[in-house]
Inverse folding.
């Protein structure tokens, strides 16, 4: 049986809710609305806002994991703030998340095909079925 990789939906205690386009911390303690992360200033506001929360002070990885999730989902270095220059561009975060999700699905499919071919090759070489 081949095992496939699933698209990344978790970063530490942060989880992507695909139906609402939100990052959810610890199953509902806090929600970050990705529709409100359309500019570099908004992303920075969310990071600053979460930094001030008590739960973030109790969990040293909270902010790190949030930034990793935002980077992965919104491709932060690409369109938000490059080398200190704030972009005035408004990003369609839903499209960006959907594109990344589609890319992850294609990668998952590729891994599954590679695993299947690898298993067939192994079976051919070892003479097993």
């Amino acid at each position: 049986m081949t095992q496939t990789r699933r698209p990344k939906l978790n970063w530490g205690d942060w989880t992507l809710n695909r139906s609402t386009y939100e990052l959810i911390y610890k199953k509902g303690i806090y929600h970050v609305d990705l529709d409100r992360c359309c500019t570099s200033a908004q992303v920075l506001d969310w990071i600053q806002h979460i930094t001030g929360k008590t739960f973030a002070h109790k969990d040293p990885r909270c902010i790190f994991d949030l930034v990793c999730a935002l980077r992965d989902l919104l491709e932060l270095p690409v369109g938000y703030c490059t080398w200190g220059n704030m972009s005035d561009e408004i990003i369609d975060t839903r499209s960006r998340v959907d594109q990344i999700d589609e890319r992850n699905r294609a990668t998952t499919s590729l891994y599954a095909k590679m695993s299947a071919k690898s298993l067939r090759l192994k079976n051919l070489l070892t003479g097993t079925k």
